[in-house]
Amino acid sequence: MNYLENINPSYFEVLYPLTKWKILSIKDLKEEAEYNGSLSGFYKIISKLEKNLLIDSFINTWTNKKYIYLMPSAIKALGKNISTLNINRDIRFHDSIVTSITREFNTYPFIEEVFLDFQTREKFPLLERVPDSLLIGKLGRSFNIAIEVELTQKSSDRVKEIIRTYSSSKLVNQVLYITDKKSILNAYQKYLNELGEEISKEKILIMYMKDMAKGKVEIMNSPVLFKDKVTTLKELFGTA
Alpha-carbon distance 129 to 170, whole Å? Predict the structure, then answer.
């Protein structure tokens, strides 16, 4: 508890966005916290919080951006559940991309709510599978879209099991897989073909976003495989 003696209580205010987004770049954290001071002043706050082990960070070597997330002591000080907000260091790079993509979706007028995995688990406890994030929106009719960010190849049996789960889901209307690797795109296309009539193909979309690891989140115009054809979300959503 020594940090309570060393940290200005107002510094904790800049951390509250992390209780929603889990992991953010310094620039995005400053924006979400609505911090009006200078960037150098914000860096000093971040440095103080990190020195007192309230936050941890890592550098995305593709973009040279620094990402911030809460340590257990800060989660506890903010009155939140450690088990839901604690970041696994092995997948923090993946989580940072999920957050970036979900925040981008959250800017679209037809998206009404977004939930990261821990929020989805709390909001929809009976959901068959918890995706990386869940989008609730409306375009003519309401829809729920699960987002799965795929940076590494899972086993074919595992992927097929998950696809079957989404195909039969009563809550999720569609699942959007997003990858930056053509090998994963091709593998998933193969699995869909092998599953054939076992699944509802109109529920499965696979997006190839080649530069997402470099911080280039291009959602609406990236190619999407849908029912064996290549299209875009802009075309599918009719927002062109």
Answer: 11
Q: Where are the alpha helices (DSSP H) in the chain?
A: 3-6, 18-21, 26-32, 39-51, 72-77, 82-85, 92-105, 117-123, 156-168, 182-195, 233-237
- What region, left, alpha or beta, does residue 227 occupy, with left being phi > 0 and alpha being psi -120 to 50 degrees? left
Q: Which of 99, 11, 116, 21 is nearest to 60 (CA)?
A: 99
For the four alpha carbons of 180, 88, 162 and 102, in that order, the dihedral sign comes to: negative
Q: Which residues make Cβ contacts (< 8 Å) with residue 34, sequence separation at least 6?
A: none
Question: What number of CA atoms fall less than 13 Å from residue 74's CA on the CB side?
Answer: 29
This prediction has a pTM of 0.93
Distance between CA atoms of 211 and 180, rounded to whole angstroms? 7
For tokens 């090998």, the residue is 183
Condensed to tens digits (0 to 9), the pLDDT of residues 118-164 reads: 999 999 998 999 999 999 999 989 999 999 999 999 999 999 999 99
Of all helices (H) and strands (E), which one includes residue 70?
strand 65-70
